Each structure stands twice: as C-alpha cells, then as structure tokens.
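Honest question from a wet-lab person: if I give you the sequences of every part of a complex, can you actually get the arrangement of the whole thing, not just the pieces? Trying it with mine:
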Amino acid sequence: LAKTTQPISMDSYEGQEVNITCSHNNIATNDYITWYQQFPSQGPRFIIQGYKTKVTNEVASLFIPADRKSSTLSLPRVSLSDTAVYYCLVGSTGGGNKLTFGTGTQLKVEL
Amino acid sequence: GAGVSQSPSNKVTEKGKDVELRCDPISGHTALYWYRQSLGQGLEFLIYFQGNSAPDKSGLPSDRFSAERTGGSVSTLTIQRTQQEDSAVYLCASSLGPAENTEAFFGQGTRLTVV
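Yes, you can. This is the full assembly:
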C-alpha cells in the first residue's frame, strides 16, 4: 500500500477554509484516495473518496493533481465542530485490503 | 441496526483474564476490519475478514489475539491472558466490498481497560 504523509496538526478559525494536503508519492494506478474524520471517543467517519481531478460532496472537496502523488482535502468555512483528526488513506482492491491509517492531521478550530 | 454495533462499550478486566469483544457489522457487508487505538494514537490494523475468511492476520500483535467471523456476519475478537498493554479502544468497521474503493463504517468501539 502507498505510504501517506500528512501534517501532524493544523490550526484554523471559524469561517475559514482549511486545506489539508496528503503526500502519496508511491500511489499505484489502481489506488483510490480516501479521507476519514475522527472525533474523540468515536470511530472514524468517511468524508470523501476520489481517484483523480476533483470530487465534491456536501461536506468537503478533494483535489487530486494529474500525477496523483498528492491530494488536498478542502473544508469550506470550518466551525468549532470540525475540530477532529483527519486521515488520508490510499489503496485499492488489490492492495491487501488492510485499509491502513496513518498518523492523521489534528485540526483545531478556534473562535 | 442501522450501523456497526460493538459490545461491550466498556470492559474492565483483571490482568491474565480472557476477554471477548463482539462486532455486529451492517447487514450485507462482506468486509470486516478490526483496529486497536491506544490513547492519543492512530489506528493500528489488526485483522481483516472477507466473508468468513481472514486473508490477512499479520496485524495481530501476538498469539494471545484471535478473531473469527461466522455466517459472514458477527465477528468476535478474543484476547487471552490479557496484559496491561492491551488496554486500548478496539474498533470494528465493515464495508460492502474492499474498503479501499468503498466507504467503511465504524462502530463506536470497545474501551478495554486491563487492571
């Protein structure tokens, strides 16, 4: 499975847009990119998944450049409730199905 | 139920005792995962099931850990002769297919404390 690298932590203020970038230089052709969010004392929650270009849902956008060696999770107008750990995962059906989580990015949103 | 259910939600056990943790995945989900998360740490992969088969058991920390899944549904994670370092939150997730390409749904976890 492709290894991922994310910032350990980020700080932001309410109403701002937050962009968290994940590096995955060894991404394979069949790999998808998935982001999960985890609040304290809860299991992770799926946010968004993509393969290339841009994906948008009601929660976030995912930007993937043409070389797919990185991806950026964009959270528009964050609020205090977006304070959580965000995990970037890369893998595919043939990747051993481990669904391996990295260390994640602790996002702290303040007033 | 509508989501992944884990029981018990909390378990306190004495060192040396055996414990069983249960996971009820979402109906119809063929893939099931177990993870361990220590306080303030990331998720540590333990084992993955596709149906009742576990193609990858490499994440199990020691031979004191075992897991099974029956009927393609309920899974049980068993820890024998528990040690204090086993204290953690044990999370279960399920997905329709290989989770790399589909959404995985997590339970609330079982908080295990070994005293």
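Two things worth pointing out. Chain A has no helices and nine strands. The beta strands of chain A are 9-13, 18-23, 32-38, 45-50, 53-56, 61-64, 70-75, 84-91, 105-110.
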